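Hi support team,

I've been running sequence recovery on a batch of backbones for a student project. Most finish fine, but this one hangs at about 90% for roughly twenty minutes before it completes. I'm not sure whether the input is malformed or the queue is just slow. I've pasted the structure tokens below so you can try to reproduce it. Let me know if you need the job ID as well.

Thanks,
M.K.
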């Protein structure tokens, strides 16, 4: 049962939330991998496969977790009241 849920999550990650920059990252990763394979440069091939995998699974390289943006709650915003200060 756990394997089925994992496969479903992977399929969802592969098939949803495609946008322009994700497609560009995939194309650049595939291009780098193909050129690395053609020239025999295995470091470029590895980097190309790495970048393609990041685009396929919609993952980034933020190790600190700072890439996740939390949606702010609009109800928490309070109206700020200002006082007028007069010079003497």
């Amino acid at each position: 049962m756990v394997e089925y849920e994992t496969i479903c999550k992977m399929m969802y990650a592969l098939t949803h939330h495609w946008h322009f920059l994700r497609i560009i990252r995939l194309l650049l990763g595939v291009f780098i991998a193909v050129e690395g394979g053609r020239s025999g440069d295995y470091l470029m091939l590895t980097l190309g496969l790495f970048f393609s995998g990041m685009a396929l699974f919609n993952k980034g390289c933020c190790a600190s977790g700072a890439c996740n943006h939390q949606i702010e709650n609009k109800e928490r915003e309070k109206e700020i009241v200002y006082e007028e200060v007069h010079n003497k």
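--
Follow-up from support: It reproduced on our side and the slowdown came from queue contention, not your input. Residues 2-61 form one domain. No action needed from you.
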